[in-house]
User: Fold these one by one.
Assistant:
Number 1:
Amino acid sequence: MTQTDRRGKTKKSTSLTGFLAATVLSSLFIALWQEFIGQTLGALLGDLLWISAILLLLGSLILLIAHAQRGAPYEPLRLIVRMLPNSPVTGYVLTVVAGLSAAVLIAPLVWPVLSPSCPLPTQLIVVTAADSEAVLREAADVYETERREENGGCRPVDVLVYAAGTTETVRQTLANGWELPANTTEMGAGPPGRSYLVDRSLGARPHYWIPESTVEFLELVPPEDGRVNSNGKLGDAGLDYLGPTRMTPLVWAVPDAFPPDVEPGILPDGPDLEWARPGLRWTSVGRLHGAHQARLLAESGRAAEQVQAEARFLGEEGADSSLALLCRVGKWADTVALVSEAAVYQARSALDSASPDCPEGMRTDLSPRYGPGLPFLDHPLVRVLWEDEEPSDLTAERQEFERFLLDLAEDEDAYAADGVYAGYRSVTGQGRAAEAMAAEHDAAHGPQVSEWAARFDPVQWWEWALQADEAHREASEPATILLAFDRSTSMASVPQQFDAARTAATTIIGDLRAQDRFGLWSYPAGDSGREATAATTLVSTTHRDNLPEELIATVEGLAPTHRPTPLREVIRAGVLALEEDAAPGAMLVVVTDGVRIQDDRGLSQEELDRVLDGTDVRVRIIAVGGGAQQAADQAACEVGILPQLTGHPRVECRDADRGRADESARGVVEEARGGR
Amino acid sequence: MGGDRLFRRTAVAAAALCLAAACTAPGADEERTIYVATGQDVSGNDLYLNLIQEWNAAQGPDGYRAYLVVLPGSADQQYAEMVRDVQSGDPEYDVINIDNQFTAMFAEAGWIREIGPGWAEAAGVAPDGDSDSVLTQVFQEKPSQSVTYRNRVYAVPFTADVGMLYYRRDLVGQEPLTAGRSLSGILAELAEATEDADVEHLYIGQFARYEGFTVNTMEIVAGEGGSLVLPGEQRLADIHRNSVEYQALNLIAEGFADGTFHPASLEGTEEETYVRFLSGEAVAMRNWPIWYRRLLIASTEQDSGHAPEYTVEALPGALLGGQSLALSSGSTNEEAALDLIGFLTGARQQQVLYYCGGYAPTRQDVYVDKLSPEDAARLCAGYGVTGEDAWHAEAGHFLDTVRLAVDDAQVRPVTPYYSQFSEELSTGLHPLFASAQRGAVPLDTDRLEQIRTAADNALYGR
């Protein structure tokens, strides 16, 4: 009903005008507030909401009481009641207002309690090889998303994927209950004989192991009756072989200058060609390429040439993955890289060839060449069981994950250019992205890859790999290495330096074979006088089997404690000591940051060069990086006086910063065995 | 470092096999054995192991033996291994040294026990009904808060951590910074002071895709006066164009766009950042307190030219970090484990960790009863740590700086889903900052809203 006031305007039109004005003004106010001091509006509105809710609740409760007590003798209530229409609706309206106000006040308090929180996700851990880490992380992300969607928005599983070094690393650690052997150094006040250290720093204990090849599983669980034995036990760990997750053929990655009519086969010798392969002892790629040569030579009646074939790879053993090799051959124009098809694809399709792991850029212009006899990497899924029994929810999540990975092994969409396994092939040999690359470079053989995949027998290839191992061992000559370890204080300007130095030393020691000879020095011997320019003999040069048991502990116990760095003096002394030893092909290995700190001028470069001119001893410097002394664009081998030292042809330097200490050390050992 | 360490360990394994070195496997008396799982001791001085051995020696010939189980260096892998162990149904570790932000998760899941009353009894601290106060009688308040979940104490603070701002005093001048407590103000002052210096970047932090990204981002937002997660509420702040939070995130993005922030920050963890700062690639660095010791020791090794000088103060908006010792629910050696926890968090042990390793203490008394440089050198010599005079000369003064920073620090969101929240935040924001480096600024508010929603859900485990 419309009421009229004394000025003749209707209350309805007044209300409408007021409403519109209030709306416009409020909008303007909010807009201005948002524009200029918007950050406090939310907080202010939040506070206003609370205050309004409290006032509304109190007011509506008072009115409700008044409404319910209309006949009551209390004067204040009667005054309030006069303002309220005497209708049952009044009570309902007041009740609703009070209820809403109370709800606004209570909601934030009860919401967290009522809100259905998700259960904590199950943790699954996958250990794999360096080349597979990125691709498996992507697959794990897809899996987690799928499972979250299936599970009403809650994430039921969290998958961690990481790479744990070389094949050999994982095999040894698996066999040792995922513990690295603790050293026996006595430190502090502990009772003698125990170090009380359990070293699990390699990585989290895995639920799954996905190596490059089934050949690695066969190394731990030998085949039975020519077939893969699916269940094995290794120390504390049970290993269940579940089958391949994806495949990739091994290829020759050739430069443009490579003859167009040469197919992969027995490696041809040519003056203009170099060959590079990831380490036979460190990777399945290297091992299976070695097995391929062993097989071809044996089948063509040239088994006696296997040792010679392996000899060409001595000295190139450092690369611990296909991608690392493609990084290493970045600068070599005429090198054929023996790698996997997937690695070639990854290198060619990378947005940027340079990365923190490969600052100078990977080789991206190599073309894959296929051959019918080349084997495959099949990346098997291996379940690792550390306990006899595990909770049922963990088992259920394992089963889901296994199903996902094994389904993905056959899902052709996963192998398209935008799929998680782009560049790989399914277990049937299909892979759209890889096929496109093959068609681009080798239309004749690309389509046949699926037929070759069907014929791939990992057990057979494992047997050929054993032959290649043996040929590699025979090709090597005994090494004599004197290691001089820099323990000057400049080696501790950043923690990585000393860590890299220890890595290099322990890698060399770990690589020694029975016929090898080894000695260990540390320098300087002290801070002043003769000690400042001399080295301490920690272990005199002797055969590996005569080395003291605590050798590793000795290296681990070295600390950067003295200030001087008598680099030239130590090289001279080391060379002279090895000359006296008269071992053929002896090598002095100097682990250092290259920073020379001495109070006097010391031995000059000219004097050192004269000593080097008259010796056959080779000097290899493992440069661990200069820490504060190394500029951002400077290589480790360019720090301090290293460029002067390597000016002499008998001295060469290997960069061992950025996590490359082990690679450099392995390469140096192979060189000492007669490699290039 | 991780790669080197990993391969070194591998070589150790190989060598040990070759040389048939004796392997010190845990003893036969498994029932009297305690396993303490921890991340790596980054002091470089094997202090954790030394302390464990000290405790073992005190147990007598037939007493308990504790083993230090060193987990991987990566925080993500440490966390995964600890979760893996407790989810296995038969946990192996008795004591775990967990990052404080994961206390709520482990407590919520029942993987660790309420430790307050047992610890108070073992430590001789009188409980007075308030769970917090059991710890705060001995430890600092903020670290105590960070191990308290739903009014129960689940761990004992072992080491404190807090975001610190390091900068080059030789470039900036001897006077303290006056720009007030916002990072933007400090960056402006640093820029002005180092206008003529030959340093390409002003600031370096940890913005790689890991938990450090979350910490760095939340600190900058807090340092600009905002709060990414609303205090006392389990939700993220609205991020609209005029909000402080948006402006702070844009400060980071613009920092990457114009080179104020070192581009390597996007791939940098704590140690990598330290290396670059030490190499003179940035004027200022955000990092934890433990790097001050290394910085001082390393700077004394500069052999030529103008030696840099460093100073450090609390970072505006700093977050509390740190690790605490918790008792696994599966442990059958509760009494001995509590005794070990009490030992490791004792006053003398905290002094050893600080003066000989740079680990910031959690106990109040260590901040008060400071050691002279001579006493510190003497203490550390007993642990085979020598040649750290430069650090010992500054250690007492640095304690005051750390104490103030810890007192003012903000505690990270207390939620069982911190890991998921952190992952969502870094997964969402990292690509935006990486794009900013290629010129994509200001930040897209729609995309930020999506990230906010995802991170908000993650706080509830979704």
Note: Chain B has two domains: 2-8+29-160+321-397, 164-320+411-458.
Number 2:
Amino acid sequence: MTDMSVPAAPASRHTGPEARLRLEKRYASERRFERYGMAALSFAIAALFLLLWTILSNGATAFFQTHIRLEVHFDPATIDPDGKRDPAAFRQANWAAVARAALQEKFPEVRGRLPLRQLDALLSDGAQIELLRMVSADPGLLGQRREVWLLTSSDVDMIQKGHSARDVPEASRRVNDAQLSWLDRLAAEGRLEKRFNTRFFTAADSRQPELVGVWGGVVGSFLTLGMTLLLAFPMGVAAAIYLEEYAPKNRFTDLIEVNINNLAAVPSIVYGLLGLAVFLQFFGMPRSAPIVGGVVLALMSLPIIIIASRAALRSVPPSIREAALGIGASKMQAIFHHILPLAMPGIMTGTIIALAHALGETAPLLMIGMVAFVVDIPAGPLSPSTVLPVQIFMWADNPERGFVEKTSAAIMTLLVFLLLMNAAAIWLRKKFERRW
Amino acid sequence: MNHRTAFIAASVATVLLSGFAAAPADAQQARDQIRIVGSSTVFPFTTAVAEQFQRTGGFKAPIVESTGTGGGMRLFCGGVGVQHPDITNASRRMTKSEFEQCKSNGVTDIVEVKIGFDGIVLAVKKGSQKMDLTLRHVFLALARQVPVNGQLAANPYTRWNQIDASLPALEIEVIGPPPTSGTRDSFNELAMLAGCGQVAEMKTLIPDNAARGRACQAIREDGKFIEGGENDNLIVQRLATGRPGTMGIFGFSFLEENPDKIEGKAIAGIEPNPDTIADGKYPIARDMYIYVKRAHVGVIPGIREFVTEYTSARAMGDNGYLEKKGLVVLPAAEAAKVRASSLALQPLTM
């Protein structure tokens, strides 16, 4: 046995220089793959940061608006010539004259039609609205003099924020030399200041960039999504429970399943066309109403909710169902007492993701008239309104320079909304999650 | 279990009820708000009037939708009644066939209000090289097929000086609107077709009028003409940051809003400005209209007052707020005529 010499070990496939080379190659390809992954990830992160940076750098200034502090004389002769203190009469008063008088008091040397008009152009129409609001709230201001911060026009605002160039020839500027010298004088006296833009969070759409607000769009989005949730959630969950727990397995239910999966991939504009044909033309529902938008978006999110809910129901361990049935629960009791509560986190996550998706939609709303200019904040699900992404789309298309920053600021608002919804999804999942 | 199922059943029922029962009832209700549809080119002006109207008129602000001229006409001509819009914006005149369609749906009395002009400009980055452009040059630079040695051939020009020795040796690169846009329709008709008419060989090469019309309006697709998307602000941005020779095509108001970044090209020596556009000397300009459904006046509150506001001197006049928004206003005499005929609600005839 001892002299049974072991034959010279046949060169193993796993040793020797060739094997080492192969091994080296496999390690290299492993490292390469890892690097591809890292490259893909860093590209995605870079793109995200570029996007966020552009939005932030364009939009950060939108939260502040340039104001001029002027001493305003609330002259009863102009505002309330009849002396009746009637709010309706205040509305009709010549507020432009009140604002102009305040400007002229500051710059008494400005004379002539054209220079005076240029002086007027420093202030926005919003200044007049503000003065009206002040007097309507407190008629006691009549006859008094007050220092008031008045909103400037968008052209002035753009120069002050550096979005329009100052150091170019006069002909290439929307604010001329005389206006610049007035602004400089106001700035030197501390009468020119960027103040927080509360209007942006309380007002609706406007054609003047300094007067716009996102609140109209936010309320519209809220009403629309509320309608979507109300419709799509119960219907989607009910459909999922039926398909998962009750429906027999046959060709017909297979067909339904294939159709639901296909519907989830249908382009959203198709749902808009459906909404136009069915809800507007057949049922005669009003155009531009959040209720119709909500129904259309609900149809769009239904397949996603059904698919997510079915997956969540399926992931509940069969032992739970069997235990419930084993101790004598009916099928419905087993579902509602045991399976559904355990599946809820998954269902809610799916629903919120579907809603977040619906929040960003504009295409289906185009068809049902929600791509519209709406000045009033929508009062209810039947009043005309628009939604946040539509607001962004329309502002991006406006020629005025001031809308660039407002568009970015509206995008930020939408992103914050989306973040809140996703955070809610995570929170709900964490709260209701059961481990076993 | 019971209250859970009851809850779900109740919420489904509420939703169905509110969705389907409330809606038809609402459609019968009177509307107290003007509804406007139509052209995206007229949209910025009509919305400015709508806002002003709400601020001063004591009426609710009209809802203005941007549907495009053609889409607006279809909705407008859909019929008479609260579910149909009251006014439509148009960046061209109503066509005979649209008028007939309106009539067949019972929309017979239509008031046409011409509100002003819109110029389409060819603009470049500020400080670009001088260039004496004509529509003929524009056509030869952008057409898909041009006459070469007596034959129609795919457009061979890559630099402006190949078209005409007087032009600079800059590469041809034009960013313009996509075919779905109304601006593109107008550009095709007012610039390409007109420029094509100045190339005598086109007439002999394609004798058939309709076929020539199509050939003249076909724009090259070899990358020299770049479709910039519907957003004109993006075109402006690309011009301002791009190469000096790059040219952009968009509405006049975008030129007015960005005097520090871009400048308009003169066509045959005529600069695009409000004067040349209003008197028709600048060749790439069109009329803009709104159409009012007369049957709705007095039914929907405020239509007459809205038209009054639109045609008032403070809106449509010299130095009115629409001019500040970039509208090229009508000459004073014409504006007065438009004001008189629209306030009398004179119906359109065709």
Note: Confidence is low (pLDDT under 50) at residues 15-28 of chain B.
